[in-house]
Amino acid sequence: MTAAIETQLSQPERVAIARLHALLELLPAALDKQLAAIGLTAFEFTLLEALDESPSGRVRLGRLAARTNATLPRLSRVVTGLERKGLVVREPCPEDGRAFNAVLTPQGRDTFQDARPQHAHAVRAMVLEDLSVQDVDELAALCLKILGRLDPDHRMDVTACLADPAPSGATVAECDADPTPACDADPRPSA
Questions:
Q1: Name one Pfam family in it (predicted).
Q2: Please, what are the domains in the chain?
């Protein structure tokens, strides 16, 4: 006789999932509220951060979508908004005329640098303040374990190390290095 399949969550499982769900619902809006004074959303900050971390200040749109777990249409809308603010430009990829890169402008770089302290303060105050270094490490490990199941194809940069484990002692940034060209097709609808 096979063991009966558990048909409901235990009380501790229900509490853990309820707390996780609340965190996922509340954190983005709370970060948006903290960054509103500088004219950015948390998602816009994440896009600017990805561009700032790129040595050339440019990232192909598909890669940017994968890094942020955004659909190409959502990413395109946000990039268009950042273009209107003068923080990003969209340029054709020199290697492929059908592809486009998002490129950080000097104003975008300045805005990102100005936003970093506000973002760091908000994240520390709302998430990390009462956590020890060990707690932060455990939080990162637990999140990665769950993300590994949610992203089995390792499309997001944060789960890339699961597909191709980094050498011992490698940093997340080293593991996330992008070996692909900085190009991707433009997801904007044709006019």
A1: MarR_2
A2: 39-130+181-191 (1.10.10.10)
